[in-house]
């Protein structure tokens, strides 16, 4: 067992040269910012490139931290990004979940329905067909359609032109047919009305706190198939991933400035001129800027509504950011044998029955939360089963709105503490009841994150954890485009999650390089002939 704590995130240092003028400035050293910087420099050497980060280490939401001798992680898994890691020459030892994808419990009063969902679309189809023999044909038809739909998504172009869109009609008719389709609409289309079966299927949208009657069918299908077919996490702690990206970026000549908060994007004659860092009066000049932070902050505050077209501001006003979360990270003593608890799945999910995600999301939209003993959705994750470090678990719940958490934290910390302890106890009770008997007896360290924590950490005022919400009303062409109305200002916001950060980076760098990097494809297509600077 490896008990030593080696956080890679703390090994990175600023290497800012104060050059004053940069070809590219990137705001944020989360995975989006790091991937953008690295892909840019892999394609074009010699460009002065700077990433500005307000925290003292890279990674943004994807990180690990130490408390009381335990290492906790924020993120837990991602779908296949091996080709991108290979292209970037990032050597990250990964564990692939080849057998099990999810342990799923659905609670109905005293009755608990339990599923052990296997990895792989074919295995999943066979499993469901066996569990729900009366619906077997419908399941097979839905899954075959989903696989085909996902294949067609791969044919799409990012930042599509009119000609691309005309081509899509022929190359990806299922995508066109589903552009306005919700995931629940897709289930209806295949006659999936069995309540229990729907509960299982709808798990794939409630991951991100969005109910199936609001979630884009295309995005939900993509998330389901990509994560269940090839699902990974690092063997080490999660901070290793951004640390390696940052290290590589610096080795290619990229500069990172930590502990520096951008407060303004300077615009002159409709184009970017540079950024202003809080507490520093001089302008860091930039030819191009990529912002990877909350779009409401970047565009509405740092640029300002007055410099943006009215139509764009209206689109921003209407955009719903994804919900926030309450998370409890627990360090457990060594008297508990985690290997005996059947928890080594990417996800162990427990919720109340059908309609739960809708109720929780409705409460979130009203600026509140809908969690109670009769209505909940939580995931239990056990990173130490992979890392081999001291026993840890994370209990994650979403969707939560900010709902005064930030104000409470700032104005009355004691009340804030009591409130967060209350909800931590609520989640611990759930984890103990359904997954880990006597859990409370084994708790040594507890760390609770609320929407206020996420807001502080990421800079997103709502503490949104998955960017722009994956609603059908703001998907595809209806999403805020990467190319902003300000010349040379880009905003890669592909979709939520770690896979999304990589694809967002691919798309934006390809856009900036006039499709010379990825030929306009929306997903990464490895090309051995891509000319890199050899690193
Ligand atoms: C608890 C949790 C669990 C998650 N689990 C998963 C998971 O298992 N799998 C998955 O795929 N996704 C997961 N996600 C989502 C995933 O982490 C994010 O989608 C992804 O990390 C976003 O990366 P990003 O770089 O776009 O944004 P961020 O990670 O938010 O990075 C933005 C960076 O910009 C910096 N910044 C903000 N404002 C400024 C400023 N003014 N000046 C300078 N710097 C600034 C921030 O400090 C931050 O480092 C999870 C998210 C959370 C919160």
What does this structure look like?
This protein has 535 residues and is an alpha/beta fold. Among the domains are: 8-93 and 235-320 and 467-512, FAD/NAD(P)-binding domain (3-Layer(bba) Sandwich); 322-461. The protein is 36% helix and 20% strand. The chain contains 19 helices and 19 strands. It has helices spanning 31-43, 82-88, 121-131, 136-153, 162-171, 173-177, 183-189, 195-201, 203-206, 217-229, 240-251, 295-304, 310-318, 356-365, 384-387, 405-411, 413-434, 451-458, 497-512, and strands at 21-27, 49-52, 64-67, 70-73, 78-79, 94-96, 100-108, 111-118, 231-234, 255-257, 262-268, 271-277, 283-291, 324-332, 347-352, 377-381, 392-400, 443-449, 489-490. Strands 1, 2, 10, 11, 12, 13 and 19 form a 7-stranded mixed sheet that branches. Strands 8-7-15-16-17-14-18 form a 7-stranded mixed sheet, with helices on both faces. It has a 3-stranded antiparallel sheet with strand order 5-9-6. The chain is globular and about 65 Å long. The structure holds flavin-adenine dinucleotide. Flavin-adenine dinucleotide binds next to helix 1, strand 14, helix 18 and helix 19.
How do the strands and helices of this protein lay out in sequence?
Elements: E1 21-27, H1 31-43, E2 49-52, E3 64-67, E4 70-73, E5 78-79, H2 82-88, E6 94-96, E7 100-108, E8 111-118, H3 121-131, H4 136-153, H5 162-171, H6 173-177, H7 183-189, H8 195-201, H9 203-206, H10 217-229, E9 231-234, H11 240-251, E10 255-257, E11 262-268, E12 271-277, E13 283-291, H12 295-304, H13 310-318, E14 324-332, E15 347-352, H14 356-365, E16 377-381, H15 384-387, E17 392-400, H16 405-411, H17 413-434, E18 443-449, H18 451-458, E19 489-490, H19 497-512
Parallel strand pairs: 1-2, 1-13, 2-10, 7-15, 13-19
Antiparallel strand pairs: 3-4, 5-9, 6-9, 7-8, 11-12, 12-13, 14-17, 14-18, 15-16, 16-17
The protein binds flavin-adenine dinucleotide.
Flavin-adenine dinucleotide (FAD) is lined by residues 27-33, 52-55, 60-62, 74-78, 261-262, 292-293, 325, 327, 454, 458-459, 465-467, 496-499, 501.
């Amino acid at each position: 067992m490896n008990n030593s704590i080696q956080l890679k995130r703390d090994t990175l240092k600023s290497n800012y040269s104060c050059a004053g003028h940069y070809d590219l400035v990137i705001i944020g050293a989360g995975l989006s910012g790091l991937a953008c910087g690295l892909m840019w420099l892999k394609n074009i050497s010699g460009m002065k490139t700077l990433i500005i980060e307000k925290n003292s280490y890279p990674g943004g939401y994807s990180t690990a931290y130490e408390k009381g001798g335990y290492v906790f992680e924020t993120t837990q898994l991602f779908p296949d990004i091996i080709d991108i890691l290979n292209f970037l020459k990032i050597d990250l030892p990964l564990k692939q979940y080849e057998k099990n994808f999810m342990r799923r419990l659905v609670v109905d009063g005293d009755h608990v329905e339990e599923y052990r969902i296997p990895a792989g679309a074919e295995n999943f189809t066979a499993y469901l067909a066996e569990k729900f023999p009366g619906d077997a044909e419908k399941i097979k038809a839905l899954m075959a359609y989903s696989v085909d739909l996902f294949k067609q998504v791969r044919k799409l172009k990012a930042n599509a032109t009119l000609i691309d869109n005309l081509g899509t009609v022929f190359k990806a008719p299922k995508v066109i047919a589903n552009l306005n389709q919700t995931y629940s609409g897709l289930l209806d289309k295949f006659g999936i009305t069995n309540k229990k079966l729907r509960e299982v299927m709808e798990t794939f949208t409630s991951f991100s706190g969005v109910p199936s009657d609001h979630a884009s069918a295309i995005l939900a299908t993509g998330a389901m198939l990509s994560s269940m077919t090839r699902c990974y996490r690092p063997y080490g702690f999660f901070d290793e991933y951004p640390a390696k990206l940052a290290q590589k970026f610096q080795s290619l000549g990229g500069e990172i400035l930590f502990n520096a908060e951008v407060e303004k994007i300077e615009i002159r004659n409709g184009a970017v001129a540079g950024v202003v860092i809080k507490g520093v009066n001089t302008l860091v000049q930039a030819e191009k800027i990529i912002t990877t932070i909350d779009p409401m902050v970047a565009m509405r505050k740092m640029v300002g509504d007055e410099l943006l077209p009215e139509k764009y501001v209206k689109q921003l006003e209407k955009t719903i950011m994804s919900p926030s979360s309450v998370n409890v990270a627990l360090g457990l003593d060594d008297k508990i044998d985690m290997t005996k608890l059947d928890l080594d799945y990417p996800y162990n999910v427990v919720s109340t029955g059908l309609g739960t995600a809708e109720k929780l999301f409705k409460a979130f939209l009203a600026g509140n939360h809908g969690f109670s003993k009769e209505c909940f959705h939580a995931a239990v994750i056990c990173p130490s089963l992979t890392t081999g470090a001291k026993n840890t678990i994370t209990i994650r719940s979403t969707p939560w709105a900010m709902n005064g958490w930030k104000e409470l934290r700032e104005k009355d910390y004691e009340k804030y503490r009591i409130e967060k302890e209350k909800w931590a106890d609520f989640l611990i009770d759930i984890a103990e009841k359904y997954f880990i008997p006597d859990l409370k007896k084994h708790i040594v360290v507890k760390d609770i994150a609320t929407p206020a924590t996420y807001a502080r950490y990421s800079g997103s005022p709502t503490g949104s954890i998955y960017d722009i919400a994956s609603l059908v009303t703001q998907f595809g062409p209806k999403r805020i485009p990467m190319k902003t109305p300000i010349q040379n200002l880009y905003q890669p916001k592909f979709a939520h999650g770690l896979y999304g950060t990589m694809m967002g980076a691919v798309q934006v760098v390809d856009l900036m390089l006039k499709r010379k990097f990825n030929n306009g494809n929306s997903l990464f297509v490895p090309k051995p002939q891509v000319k890199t600077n050899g690193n």
